[in-house]
């Protein structure tokens, strides 16, 4: 199989590239940065932006499948930057797929496209899109997901996967920030600690993408649909964070904030960052406050039924591997 991975140098993109290369597929990555580690895996690496249609056309030409993983992530930043990458970039990828005659496209979406600040427990793919977004990332990812799913046809079969809270060795985002905050005494427990969430080990997320691509056609059960992806066993979020911290000989957070207090703090900090020339990003936002205090867990049965997804690495093994990596200094 000849595959293109947009954002192949990222955390999930790298795992997808490696999995494809291990079974002998020809893999090309297109990313904004240079990623020597991919070339060591035998991946053809191209350096370009999703805003460059010519580069995308050249990269996609002759490919059998595209994994559209690249996105502008995060909970803070200018809306136009999110729109440019997540919406306009997706338009460009779809146009290049049509021009290049690609038959299959698997899109990396996010459960946050459905997150409305309320509890979702063992939810399925019929969960509606949120009607009010508190960050540009989920808003633009929801629009991009709609574009992808609407494109499904005999000429280009599409589906979207929503891996939730991806973690594992090499994680550049979630856990390193939590660990650093805990080490410096800046981490506070948000909510009452009863919120249940689904996590997703990065190798399981990569597996889901490959399984979805291998079985995708316009008539496949997952064509034109979106699926949550993660561990089969949800966790109580703060109990799991405490477990990771104890594994690193770091004391769990002693401070606790209610969801309402954290939300109000996030609203204030967002206002200050908008009206003042503040560096970096707020330590708390309304979106993050709701994410850390509410339940968002999902059933894996629809993905299992549609394209055979089953976790390859269980939660215990995934957590231990991640703790070991963090202990080695990340």
Description:
This protein is of the alpha/beta class and 330 residues long. The chain has a single domain (2-238, 288-327), classed as 3-Layer(aba) Sandwich (Rossmann fold), CATH 3.40.50. The chain contains 12 helices and 15 strands. The protein has helices at residues 11-22, 36-40, 53-60, 79-100, 136-150, 174-183, 202-214, 237-247, 259-275, 286-293, 301-307, 315-327, and strands at 2-6, 26-31, 44-47, 65-68, 104-108, 120-123, 157-163, 166-167, 189-190, 196-197, 200-201, 226-229, 235-236, 256-257, 296-298. The strands form 5 sheets. It has a 7-stranded parallel beta sheet, with helices on both faces. A two-stranded parallel ribbon has the order 6-15. Strand 1 (2-6), helix 1 (11-22) and strand 2 (26-31) form a beta-alpha-beta unit. Helix 3 (53-60) crosses helix 4 (79-100). It starts with a strand and ends with a helix. 46% of the residues are buried.
